[in-house]
Amino acid sequence: MITETQYAHFPSLTLDVGETLPNVQVAYETYGTLNAARSNAILVLHAFSGDAHAAGIDHEGKPGWWANMIGPGKAFDTQLYFVICANVLGGCRGTTGPSSLNPATDKPYGLSFPGITIGDMVRLQKMLIDKLGIARLLAVTGGSMGGMQALEWAASYPEAVEACIPIASTARHSAQQIAFNETGRQAIMADPDFNRGDYYDKTPPGRGLSVARMIGHITYMSDESMREKFGRRLRERQEFSYDFGADFEVESYLRYRGTQFVGRFDANSYLYITKAMDYFDLSAGYPSLAASLERAQSRFLVVSFTSDWLYPSYQSQEIVNALRSRNHDVAYCELSSNYGHDAFLVDVGEQTGIVTGFLARCAREFRTPAGQVGR
Amino acid sequence: MKVREVLGRSDYALISELIPSGSRVLDLGCGGGGLLAWLKENKQVDARGVELKRELVQQAIARGVTVYQGDLEASLSEYPDQAFDYVTLSQTLQETRQPLMVINEMLRIGSRAIIAFPNFGHWRVRLSHLFSGGAPKTALFPYEWHSSPNMHYLTVLDFEESIRTQGWTVERRLFLSGHISGTILPNLMAEVAVYMFRR
Questions:
Q1: Which domains does chain B have, with CATH numbers?
Q2: Fewer Cβ atoms within 10 Å of its own Cβ: the N or the C terminal residue of chain A?
Q3: pTM of the model
């Protein structure tokens, strides 16, 4: 399945910070077919560095970031469901972000791009879903930052979400999560090429961005998965170099992932999106997390992984307990995996089983929104 | 289809007969969600479950049942008052650390509790102990002393005493020996006792 990225345009987007962003573009892909009742649409929400290309392969032969979960016969079965994935606001993969041209100056925004939130991302996604003519999504789902967006959807647009599947996620960023993000941001801003975010016609801050990504990758794995994958193995040598070269496999791996990231990601997007994650707290402005989910009408499936220390299970349980205390329909499972936070992307066997069954049930019990003709 | 043929458990058969269509049911220690799936399919209940074992939780969710993975005793306090019509606990009461707390929580979050437990007063259990001199071992209590999940052994007589002291109102008492239900000398004859009661 060769996929095509499409683009939608909106005259403006109102942001939580109080500003209005003009001429907003959204990059998105769709897979499968929307049924006549418009009741089989699933919005997949990507994690921090993801993009609209979630499934199939693109023209360059690159598979989608969740190709093992989305496709014919997969958990998000494209023979049954119409799957949509859009690049987030603030991104650098086709949706408006700090690397986009500011229509007022005809130059890239850089740090003049307004601060954004998870709520802003979701507001823009809602505009896209409205444009596609879908009143109620069968499901919103995603891992990590994708899970935060899914929760925001269920809380902000209760009538538009039949089922919500946040995976390896949280209702609010913890001190540890903020700390790792801040370290990444400081690495970028300490790079002399950063130039206060104004580097688009110069050398980008590749060293800083690369270090930020290396830190990220460490947090996505687990002690066990790193031991298994690298151990203390040396890289293409029998002896230590004593010259700070990449002696160990793990060093070489991290350097490779860091360098590779520089080619596909914008440093300013890194700053804006990680901040949006850090600002995220679904319960902000409410007496409790449970109160912030009071209006939600979705059925929930919350999933966490045993070895995920970046988004530990207690954060998923916090969501689940808040929902249970209001008697929401919530299923929860902590799946067993050694892959750490990456598990939701790479260790999808058990995840597929529960998502498939949960979705089938939600499709059977789909509640047609008021004012729309049922099937 | 008869529930017994599907689930192969007489206590499930009785519980499913006690629960009216369309009710809100929470099944504690729901395993792979067999009973809940049956109730959903045949009685259109709003079915929820709690189960500790990961593999069973996955099974239940995969068959479309809303199950929460967690420790039964630790999970009860999160539920709001009177969220369910029936809270069921089948063959698990004897494995809980604080059975009375569990039952009182069941009666807080639901209008009625349905509890099925293996009767330690059954004559086979008594004979096993009398003749072997060791901890009783029967089909219902098959474990070695060191590998039993059971923490509290109770009999029909004991439970009746708790009903009196706690002031619960029993609506149904059902006693099972094999697949046969009867009421003669239940403390001696019943392998499994099923109680439906409220505060």
A1: 3-120+152-198 (3.40.50.150)
A2: C
A3: 0.95
